[in-house]
Structures are given as C-alpha cells and as structure tokens.
Amino acid sequence: MAAVLESLLREEVSVAAAVRWIARSAQSSEDDPGEAAALRSLRPLRKEFVPFLLNFLREQSSRVLPQGPPTPAKAPGSSAALPGRPGGPSRGGRGARSQLFPPAEPSSAAAAEAPPARRGGRRRGPGPGRERGGRGPGGLEEGVGGESPPWAAGRRRRSSGSPGSPGRARSDPPNLSNLEEFPPVGSLPPGPAGTKPSRRINPTPVSEERSLSKPKTCFTSPPISCVPSSQPSVPDTSPWGHGLPPGCRSLQEEREMLRKERSKHLQQSPTPACPTSESGSPLPSRTGNLTAEAADPARVSSRQRLELIALIYSSCIAENLVPNLFLELFFILQLLTARRMVAAKDSDLEPTPGAPDSLESPLFQSVHDCVFFAVQVLEHQFDKGTLKLLAENERLLCFSPALQGRLKAAYEGSVAKVSLAMPPSAQAVSFQPETDNRANFSSDRAFHTFKKQRDVFFEVLREWEDRHEEPGWDFEKGLGSRIRAMMGQLSAACSHSHFVRLFQKQLLQMCQSPGGTGGTVLGEAPDVLNMLGADKLGRLRRLQERLVAPQSSGGPCPPPTFPGCQGFFRDFILSASSFQFNQHLMDSLSLKIRELNSLALPQPEPSDEDGESDVDWQGERRQFAVVLLSLRLLAKFLGFVAFLPYRGPEPPPTRELQDSILALRSQVPPALDVRALLQQGLRARRAVLTVPWLVEFLSLADHIVPLLDYYRSIFVVLLHLHRSLVLSKESEGEMCFLNKLLLLAVLGWLFQIPTVPEDLFFLEEGQLDAFEVDTVPSEHGLDGMPVVDQHLLYTCCPYIGELRKLLASWVSGSSGRSGGFVRKITPTTTTTGLGAQPPHTTQGLQAQLAQAFFHNQPPSLRRTVEFVAERIGSNCVKHIKATLVADLVHQAESLLREQLVMQGQDGGDPAQLLEILCSQLCPHGAQALTRGREFCQKKSPGAVRALLPEETPAAVLSSAENIAVGLATEKACAWLSANITALIRREVKAAVSRTLRAQGPEPAARGERRGCSRACEHHAPLPSHLISEIKDVLSLAVGPRDPEEGISLDHLEQLLGQLGQTLQCRQFLCPPAEQHLAKCSVDLASLLVADQIPVLGPPAPRGLERGQARRLLHLLLSLWKDGFQVPVPLQLLLSPRNVGLLADTRPREWDLLLFLLRELVEKGLMGRPEIEACLGSLRDAQWPKDFSEELATLFNLFLAEPPMPEPQLRACELVQTNRGTVLAQS
Amino acid sequence: MILTKAQYDEIAQCLVSVPPTRQSLRKLKQTFPSQSQATLLSIFSQEYQKHIKRTHAKHHTSEAIETYYQRYLNGVGRNGSAPVLLELANEVDYAPSLMARIILERFLQDHEETPPSKSVINSMLRDPSQIPDGVLANQVYQCIVNDCCYGPLVDCIKHAIGHEHEVLLRDLLLEKNLSFLDEDQLRAKGYDKTPDFILQVPVAVEGHIIHWIESKASFGDECSHHAYLHDQFWSYWNRKQLLPDSKAQPLTLIEIFVL
Asked: What is the ipTM of this complex?
C-alpha cells in the first residue's frame, strides 16, 4: 500500500487516476497507459488502500494531537491523551477500535518501518472473517482489545528494536516490487515514549473514562470534558503577522471576555475537573504546554507532499470510500485545531530535506504542516458542505483566505433552520375510549385487570422518573418484582395486546421529543458571531450557562445507547422478562413500523412561489421528522427485543461454535422482513425514510447477525448505497444534499458499531456490484425532496455535534472543556427540479383531474383541502350521530313505551323487542347518506374559504371547495354506509336496556318526579343536615341520655318544617337521602306515638302533651302525603319493634296510635286491608299477656270503625273513651 | 374552610380514644366553638375511622366475638332495656354500629340454619324491625342511632353530603360560566374511572392549572389525600393527560369544599 502512496508522491501516478483506481475495478479509458501499468501491478492491493491511507494519516498525526479531543473511531493515530496516562502524548487514548486496520500479526517486531507493506500483504491472505483487527490467532474476535497482552509484548519488542535504527537519513524509495521483504527501517526519530510511528497501533488500556462504555466500544474515546487542559493562551496581539480584519480584533476581545468568565466559573466550582489557569499564564501539565502554537504557512515543510496526500485523501472522502465521513471530518478538524506539537519532540523534528517525498519521513513535522494539510483537505472538501465555524478560524484565514471567503459566503447564504416543535415529554397516554372501553375486552375481569395494570404501569413510570437519577437506585431492585407481578396478571392474550399498545404509545410519546432522547438540542445554540458581537451581559450569562451545562459527548461514534426515557422502557422489557410481552411487543412494533414506513407522506412539488413554499415545507419537514423519529425509535426497540435472546457481551469464541450458531440462526425468519422493506424503500426512492430506522434496528443486532446471509445482503445493499451517495454529485433526480448527509452519517455510524465486522466495509467490488439497486430515477420519491433539515440531522446524529464542539473549543480557546456553544453546520440545501408525476391509474378520472389540479397549486392548498375534507367528514358523522341517530333513539324509546303499555309491565323478551324496534328503525338509516351529503355540501366550502388565502383566484377557490366537498362526502358516506345500521342498532340497544332498567324497581316514583318550583332559590336546609338532626332526636329518644337532656317542642316543630322545605326544594335531594329521611320520619312518628320523646320543659324533661303530639303527627302525615316522592315505609309504624315501644310505657297510650291509623286511612296513605294485615301479623308476635289483650282490643276497635272517616276530633274522643272502657274492662 | 396544620393537630389530639357518640361530639363543639360542626364531625369521623382500621382485626377474632356475644347475652338477660350493646362497644373501644353487626351476625348464626348473607345483615341493620329478636332489634337500633361515625344512617349522611357538594360545585361552575363534562357524560363516553367534573377549558387557581375537579366533601387530611391520590387521582391522570407537568401531583380541591 505504501507503494501506491509512494508512487503518488513521486508523481508517477496522477491523483485522479489513483482515485479512479481505488473506486472502480474497471479501468477507465482516461487513464494514462503508464499510470495504468504502474497501478495494475498493485491491483490486488486496491482494497486495502483506503484503510492504509487512513491508518497512515492517523499515525502520522499521533504526535500532534496528544491532547486533542476524542479520537475518532477507527482512527488509530489521532489519539487523545487520557488523564492519568504517563507519556500521554505518544499513543494514549487509542481505542480498541483503532485496531480496525492493524496488522494481523502483532509481534512483527522488526517491521517497525515496513508495516504498510507487510500488512497489506497479510490482509490479502486470510478471508474476511480473519481480517478483524486485534483478533488473537485463531480467534474470531478479540475481547477487550486494549488490554490484551500480545499488544504489550509487541510494543516492548518494537521499542527495543527501534533505538538502534536511526534511519532518519534514509532516502531510498521503498522497494515496491518486494513488499513482503520490505526492510524495517526506523526512519523516524524515537518518540518521547520510545516508540516510533507505525501503522501498528498500540491499543490503549481501557481507562476509567471508558468504564461506562462497553468492551469493544473503546473506540468511542473519552469525552471531551475529561481531557486535561490548561488554559490555552491566545495572544492578545495578533501573532500571525497577516493583517487581521478589524472584526477579528473585536472578536479577540470578546473571546478574552469569554475566557475570563469561564475561568471565573471554574474557580468557583469546588472540584474543577481539569486544571485551569488564568489566561495567558499557561500551567505546565503532564501533557506539556498546551498553548496553541501559532501556525505559519511559511513554515510548512514538504508542502508538495502534503498537497498530494491531501488531494488523494479528500478524493477518497468525496467518493465515499471512507467508512465514516464525519469521522474523517473530525480528524481534519482535529488537525486544524491542533495546539502544538509534542514538546519533547521538537529537537528531533528538524525537517529532513533529504527525503521530502519519502514516506519514512514524518508527514506532519509541525503544527504548520497539520494545519496546512487540514486546510488543503478542507479546500477540496468544503465547497458544498460548509462548516461555518471554520470561517472564523484564524489559521484558515492565514493558510487560505479564499476558502474562508467561500465559507463566509456559504454561511450567509444558508437557509434558515427549522426547529422541531415537539410536545413536552412524559405525558401519559390518554384513555382511548374506542380501544380501551369494556367492549374491547373479553370479560369484565380482563377489563378490570387492565384498568389496574394501567395504573401500576404509570406508578412504576412515575417512580422511575422520580428516582432513577438517585445514586444507588436500581431499576431491577426497585421495580422489578412489581413489574413481573403485573405481567403475571396479564393472562389473556388480548390483555397483552392492550398493554403492549399502551406501552408502545407511551414509548412514542415520551421518547420522541429531543429532550426525551437525552441528546443535546443543538439547533438552539445561538449564533456565536451574533452573540459575541452583542455586548449584552445577559447574553453572556446565557452563554456561560451553556458552557457549564453538561454535555453528552460520546465521541463522534458513540455506541448505541438508550438515553433518557428510553432507558426506562429498555429496563422495563428486561425486568419484565416476559416472553409473551416481548412477542406481542415485536408484533406491535413491526406493525407500526410497516404502517409508518409506508405512510404516504405528502409529495408536493417545490413551488415557484418561494416564500410560501418555504413556509409550507416546514410543515412537511416537521411531519417527516416526526415519522422518521418515531420509526427510528420503534425500530431500535424492535431490534432490541428481537435480538435480545441472542445478545451477549462476547462473540462466539471459536469458528466451529460460530458455524453451528450460524447454521441455527440462518433458519430463523427475521422478526420483520427488513430486507424487503429496504428494497422497497430504495425502489420507491424513500431511502431517506427507510435507511435511518433500519440502521437503528441493525445497530442493536448481536455479533452473529451480520454474518447471516439475510442480514449480510442488507449490509451489502447499504454499503452500495453509501458508496453511491457522493455529496458533490448533483443531478436531476438525485437525492437532496441533506438527505444524503443524513444517510451518510447514520450509515457511517452503523459501520462503526462494535457488532458490525470492520471488514464489511471493504468488500470486494465484485460483491458490491452484484447488488445493483434498480431505482427508477424519473419517479419522484422522498429522497429527492428536502425533507431533512439541520435540526433533524442533528437530532438523529448527535455525534455530528462533536465536530462543532471541536471547533467551538478552539474558538473558546480551550481544548474541549466547553463545547457547549456551537454553531450549526449550515450547508446550502439544493432543490431538485420538477419531475412529472404519473397519475395514479387506480383512481378515476375525477381523481386524476383533482391530482392535476393540485399539481399546479401550492402544496398548502392540497393540504388545506385534505384537512378540511377530513375534518368535515368526521364532523358529519358526529352530526348524524347527534341528530338522526338520536332522533331514532327517541323514537325507539317511545315505541318501546307503547309496547310496554300494550304488553303489560314486563313487555316480553328484550332481545325480541330490540329486533322489532330495529327492523322498524334501521331503514331510516338510509337518510344518513342524504343528510351527510347535505352537511358536507353546506360546511366544506366555508371552511376552505376561511383557510385559503384571501387572494386565491375564484376559479381555484371553487375547485378547491368542490374537491373538499367531494372528499368529505366520500369519507363520510363511506363510513356511514358501512356503519350506520350497526350504529343505530347499538344506540337503540343501549336505549332499550336503559328504558327497561328504568321500568324496574319503582316505576311510579320515577314516573312523576317533580323538581323544585321555578321560583325556588334552593335555600332549604341540606338533606344531610336534616338526617343528622333527626338522627340526634332519635338517639336522644332511644337513649341513653343524661337526666337534663331533652328536645324542645319548638325545635321539633322547626325540624319538621325544615323537612317540609327540603322536600319542596329538591335541588340537593338524592333518592337514598330521601328514603332515609322517610324512614327516620316514620321512626320519629313511632316514638311520638309511644310518647318516648323527652321534651325540655320548664321543670324537667317530660313527655309530650297529647295535643302537641297530635300536632306533630299531623305535620308528619302531611309530609308523607305531599312531601315525599319516595315510598314511605309506613308499615313500619305497625312493626313489632315500634309497637313494642308502647309496651314499656305506663300508662299505655293507645289513642295516638289509633288516631294515626285513622289518619293514614283518611289521607289515603294506607289502605284498611293493609293495616289490617299488619295488625293481624302483630298478633302473632310474642307479647306480655296484658299487652296482647290491649292489642287485640285496638284491633277490634279499628275493625269496628265505619269505613267512612268521621270528623277528626270526635274520632279521637271516641278513641279515648274506648280506651278507658278497655282499661276498665281489663 | 381551610385549617392550619396546627389547628388540625389540636383537634385530632382531642379525639384520641373518644367514643363516637353524641356526647363526644357535643364536648368537641364546646372545646372548639370556632369550628363548624361539619368540619369537626368530618375530622372526628376520619380520626375515628383511622382508629378503627388499626384495631379492627382484634375485635374480629373468634374469641373476641364469643366473649362479646356472651357478655351481650348476660347483659340483656339481666335487663333487656338497658343499653347493653352500646355500653359494651364503648367499653371495648369499638364502633357501636360495628359491634351491633358482630353481635347480630353471631346471633343469626345461632338462630338460622344457613349462615346469614351480607345483604341480609345489611338489610337488618338498615331496618332493625326485620331482626327476629325484639330485644336485639332495640339494642341494634340504639347502637345505630347513637353512632356518629359508622352505620347506615351515617353512611347515608355522608352520601348525601357528597351529593350535595357535587350539586354545589356544579352550581358554582355554572355560575362562573365554566364549561365542564360531568361524571355521567364521561361514563357515557366509556371512561372507566372519572372525576366528578372535567373542565373543558382549564382554569388557573392560585397559580395552579386546574383541569378537573373531584369533590370529596370531607376534610382533607394528609391520610385521605394520600389515599385518594392513590385510589383515584393518579388514575385520572393516567387516563387523561390532565397535567402539563409530569412531576406535578394532581391538585385537589378538598379543602375548598370541606364540609
């Protein structure tokens, strides 16, 4: 591989030819024959060139970026020094992932100089499965690579070999024809740690910064915030010599201000994570003086060589030959923002004039070189996608004022950002009457179980919300048993599906918003230039808040995680560990993914009216974003659950084991046929929707999955797609720039996932070509529309933000401590041209006409019309329900009543009744369609008119109205014709059962319930108060009571008066209260009759006088007659217990009872036969002998009464005389 | 009526092991003349219920029941018209109505072939005339009318109060022109658990957003707040997205409508 580079450097081969050579298998006719010949001999190496180049650059830069921000994945050389690592500058911070392109044999100690060649040769040898870096011999995967002893051994051996080879003066070109034998020559001075740059990368032991990440994900490198840094000093006077524009000077001041604020804050904080110092006085630290060195274009060494490599490197990037675009950008920016070369090396780092074009001499001999290289790459790279922050980088200005000018221009021309207005998170899923009501459950029990489960689920969720951030709180310990108990109750399959629906809805609701995902909302970062330009203190304070805000930084390639609320759902699934639940969840997720994936997102054409279309596009983008984010979330959880049974920390240890697992797994059908969906998506040009969620799904696959044929073919398709997304290409029907960028970002990320074998990316071309996707370029799909915006890009790929953080950290003058304020990447979006959309043949001519009409109108018009139609159609159905159906129900009720009157009280079989009613009423349902049509006709035009702009031409307006009417009618009528009969039936059925129930217990009382009179002001005493008062009287009468206790007669009369009022004003009276009042009044009457009420009198409590008692009884009688609307249990007056009260009184007072009985009959409250029956049964009770006799006399007296009532007073006197007679006789 | 915590504690302090009788309530009224009878009764009732919940089990062991029944039999054997059952309840510090229930159950076990059903017992307690034994009927009746915390009459009073306050609340809402859906309307829509009223347009009260109102018509002590929160309010929240902030607890208007 080095040979290729060498030949490039010697200009034997042109860069263009080399890139063609790398990218394509076939030779191009444009190739110079001489070049072709030179390259042909190297053909077998083509596959390895890119890995080699990347590794080479990383290594070369390793000394420059010791203190830099995180090491990008698969970027072996550009490591960041980890705190606490002695000799940090050398090779600290290299992640395990850096072994993507290491030699297969680590112990080739002597090959310190030759590795390129050796490795290239080796890589050809073993099959793809063996190329995986860091694997032990025979092993399929290494464990935690960083700590593996073989590496340490190799390193020792290398270091021992290197001192003896001064090799710096070596100038012979490498022997290209004999790569295997390429001699090891130490052409580089030994580094401070005694190592030489080499492609063989020493793994970095996993340090505590990484302890959180999983093994094999060490490549994610430490978070920026942990990199030790001293306060870098940016001199106040411009050290660059080149005249700074005046704006820059004020910028310098602003920056200085910022630094002061920051250091102030750091001093205040009790435990600063990193050593800091006052600006301008750098502190020496372990990693040396980190003051940024002034980069000077004049001091660049071997300019030509750097230019060449930069050219070929950027060509590789442009052609998508690198696995992860953003990783490379990150690397370049690291170079650009390199602070200074490792101090210890300075003495050794004299340029080697003798070998300017040799690979053996270090590529980057100084910061100047790094910056030069970076700028060179950027010059090639960023003519389209632009990093605005770069515009501010002074070094850029020095090295290429032209590029800076372009950047600025690009920035100013960039489109406005669109922010996703998401609903706040953590809302509960609302009760959904249509799916959650009783009718959807098999039994009452299932319904109530689910009711309970819903409550338990939210209880668990709330507890998690409250407590999951507490130290020491453990999900499993805290909630595990409760969750399992709950899952245990879900017995019926139908309950599972209900619960899964709830779970999924809650998942979508909580995790969709950016806050819910735990990612930083980058889009809201205020523009730095504006911010610094303004001298408002408030702004600075906001800035400060941002600076101290914790940032989620997992490096540019974080492993898949479940941030924020997602963690709850993941842990819930794990804790529930319910097979049924998982299966139902997978089913449900798959269904929802299919549904959303095939959702017909509106496909409006980019409008000519720019202003308007921009507004409209925001809605489109928002909808797309919501769908995309939902899909990603669902797919992630589907992947999680689907691969859960197979997940393990370690890949299978032996090939045999792996083969047997493969044989087993290859016959398991996938949970969701993602390959078909991917192919569909590509064909329909909806990759921008399909691929991001597919990536989420695959990111949670286990180690075996990429080896399965099914999934491997998916990876190949994805790889092909990746290769085809060349950002610089823009043609008709091509994908929009940001869409491409999103796909590149997610795919690049996927290729870095630990479970995805590294060798997948560098497949043989033959394999790639076999999977040509047949897209129809003429058809207009989502891909061609600017559906992705900056915000969505950053939401989906928060790791892109690492680039900004890196640049921001440079601007802020620190090496990555801050990173909070970052500016947006603002590439210009491209709009693709109009494409003819073939009319849908399935729809009628009318529909085609409508389509054609919409085609020529702004998309908002279509949306408005569709919205109106949708709402009016729905309203129409509601209106029919409220009018026609309600009328029919009323008819049904009156018919039913007639029926009941005719057939007597029971009315016959309810089911039969229902049938009769339905057969009479359902035909009327036909009216629904006519009425529905009228409704839509009447309502739609107004709504369309109100929502469309005033200036809409009349013809357009009327067409829009007509279409809206048509669509609304179609919608409403389709529903009504399908459902009206069932609806009427259901409503009538409910009405019938209601009526029948109402017929039940007390039809009389129910029939003539009176309300209070119109003039009533509802000032009557409350029923509760009256019951309470009467209860007090009863308890006093029943006793026990204190000797002085009693009731005043006034109070008693007042109480009965109040009772009358309350019974008049029925505002507060409910039937149970009235029933109790009635019963209490009867009890009171019995006590009056038995003279048991102690009345407070002047001397002492005594019994009532007979006249008083009668007055009270009269009051009660009239209340019973006119006041109560519930039946009064008057028969209780003659219950043995109440009559027995008389037994205790001496002398017994029978006249009041007789009086009462007569009055009851007279007022028609009780019939004579009824009283006679009661009296008859009284005689059966056991009484003292004398009492029985008196009772018998009373009975005879009552029977002897003439049926016609006599005047009241006389009757009483008669009773009194009679009683006297009775007593005299006894 | 809003009470301070100190006021409430003072009242609750006076209610430790006080029998739920007319006399106790009268004494309470004399001690706290500034408080309304409704408030005092509500607090009394809640405190007493807490007390009963704690001690309920020990009165229901078969030994205890047997002892009580024998004491009752002995008591009425001596004098059927003396308040035997009521005094027994007061003596063992148990609610008279509940004591009546225990004795009635035990009595029916002796006198009926099949063990009495709950509905039969309830019906007899509602109307003691149905009790076959005249003496027991009088004793039970005496217990019920003298118990101010338990029993069918008290239940009815509580129910009536609840109903009245719902009506009052509805009137208030109508008076203030607040549009709402009531329980019946919500139930018709198929909701399984519903508060009394859901406001169709939320209102702000003292800085809190009110989405729905549940009238409890009882004194809102910490315990009942907690219980209602668990039994009802969270359930409403779970169903209706009624609160803008996930951490905020449902607001209750118990205090505003304390008896």
From this structure: 0.88
